[in-house]
Amino acid sequence: MESIGKKLKTTREEKGYSPDQVARDTNIARRFILAMEEENFSALPGDTYLLGFLRNYADYLGLDPEDIVNLYRNMQLQEQPIPMEELLHAKKRRPPRKVVLLVLALLVLTGGGSYLVYELLLSSNGDQTATAEEQAAQVPEEGEGEDEELVFKMEEKIVTRRFREGEQILIDFGEGNIPLNIREVDGEVSLGSPEGELSLSLGQEVSLDMSLDGRDDLMLEVQDIDSHGGTVVLRLDRGIAGAEISSDEGEAGGLVELGTSTVSERRQEPLTIDRRDTLEPFQLNIEFRGYSMVRYLLDGEIREQRYFRRGENLRLDVDREVMLWISNAGNLNARAAGRELDFGGPGEVAVKLLRWERNQDGQDYELRLLPVY
User: Fold this and answer.
1) What is the 3-state composition of the chain as percent helix, strand, coil, each rounded to the nearest 5?
2) Does residue 34 lie in a domain region?
């Protein structure tokens, strides 16, 4: 039978993808990617999530997801032992006569003892009732003390812990605690953050800008979901820091300190898309050909991060500028002001700034696409 792991790994290597790139593009943790390629399925949680991971990974590689799932199911069937030998040679045995007599004797003794136990229970019933009333009086009212239990203060750099539905995590970033709320735990976990609402599945990793300063400062990974118990295991790492991006709102001079690249293949020149004598709103349209995570900051106010799949579209109405962070730049087609935009190649992580700027003579405005390294 064809090896699932070998097929996944060979296809990935033929496409030139690294495990880290696949993990970024699919939001499946890197260790789960490697576990599927090594056919170490015991390292993955439950069949439900495993089948979902196999389908998503196969679809990402351009393979037929159902073929991969069927290969896995056939492999599981072949590995299950069939106890035919025991079924064929099992002998019917009758219980010995002595055992039957012993059981009858025990039943007689039990019947006599039951009456004595019944009398003892009646005599002690009053004492037990009083004790139960005393214990009930000591039980706190429902909800008493729950508020403190539903708040967890994260003071360490990295925390891996099981949290409950409705719990609030207060994360210390040096300038006060910022809340992260666990709103609902079902097949996925729903979280409320300063960036907005987000829904994450098992094994998914995201980076968040909790302090809303333009830099990612928290890495979050979902390691386990117990939908019946309403709990989730999260790994929180506040040791990351995103690249600072500076945006100049002045009339001239362009962008301040966007940086340079020492890798010639990555170096790109700014592209002028349109020229106008006055500032005019424009529209950015993006069509996705495959998996990609996109985060954008629109006109310095609206901030959103979302995971897009093949066939989905994103349309942004921009007044002045939009900053985009893209996890897989080759998986999308983009247009603005009637021009096609090139954000990068397959697997490339790109950061771009699309904005209006005054030209050098200060007379007109230019809509420019600027690389940010």
Assistant:
1) 30, 30, 40
2) yes
CATH number at residue 359: 2.60.40
- Write the DSSP string, 40-90: -GGGS-THHHHHHHHHHHHHHHT--HHHHHHHHHHHHHHHS---HHHHHH-
Q: Give the three-class secondary structure for 223.
A: strand
Identify whether 119 is part of a domain.
no
Last residue within a domain, chosen from 61, 79, 97: 79
Given 211, 237, 263, the domain boundary residue is 237
Amino acid at residue number 96: P
267 close to 256: Cβ distance less than 8 angstroms:
no
Number of domains in the chain: 3
What CATH number should be reported for the domain holding residue 213?
Answer: 2.60.98.10
Tokens of 183: 């709103």
The 3-state DSSP class for residue 9 equals helix
CA distances from 280 to 219, 301, 313, 355 (A): 37, 18, 23, 11
- Cα R_g (the chain), whole angstroms: 31
My answer on whether 10 and 60 are in the same domain is: yes
Is 106 part of any domain?
Answer: no
- Domain identity same for 157 and 206: yes
Residues 233 and 309 in one domain: no
Domain of 161?
146-237
For residue 320, being part of any structural domain is answered with yes
Residues in the chain: 373
Q: Where are the beta strands (DSSP E) in 229-364?
A: 231-237, 271-276, 282-288, 292-298, 302-308, 313-318, 321-326, 332-336, 339-341, 350-358
Digit-by-digit pLDDT tens for the chain (373 residues) are: 678 999 999 999 999 899 988 888 887 888 889 999 999 988 887 777 788 889 889 989 999 999 998 988 888 887 766 555 555 554 455 556 666 567 676 776 666 566 555 555 555 554 544 444 444 444 444 444 444 458 999 988 888 899 999 999 999 877 678 899 999 998 889 999 887 888 898 888 888 888 777 778 888 988 888 878 889 989 898 866 443 333 333 333 344 345 444 444 455 678 999 999 888 999 999 999 987 889 899 998 888 888 888 899 999 999 999 999 898 888 899 999 889 999 888 777 888 999 999 887 777 899 999 987 6
